[in-house]
Design goal:
alpha+beta; three-stranded antiparallel beta sheet; two-stranded antiparallel sheet
Length: 98
Amino acid sequence: MCNVNYLIEIRRFNTFAARTRLPASAQLLWYKLIEIMNQHARGGDWCDGFLCIDNPYLLAYFPMSATALADARRTLCEAGLLEYIPGEKKRTPPAYRL
């Protein structure tokens, strides 16, 4: 577990997103991922590894198509804001780390 200050992370992200003109879909995905990760945290202690989140669950939070999700995820990975491990169809869900 690592200690994360949720508000500081959001403020840093807001600054980065404004400076780099990060697309709205990538911003929305980042916010949804940090919220899901915060739900799985124990107080300020967050999992320092990857969190598995299946696509149907994530798409319930991210009101866009699966293609838009993939594009937003790619944008966040390219910006160095997200690490992603693809899942295996019907076996393991994708894993994310901010």
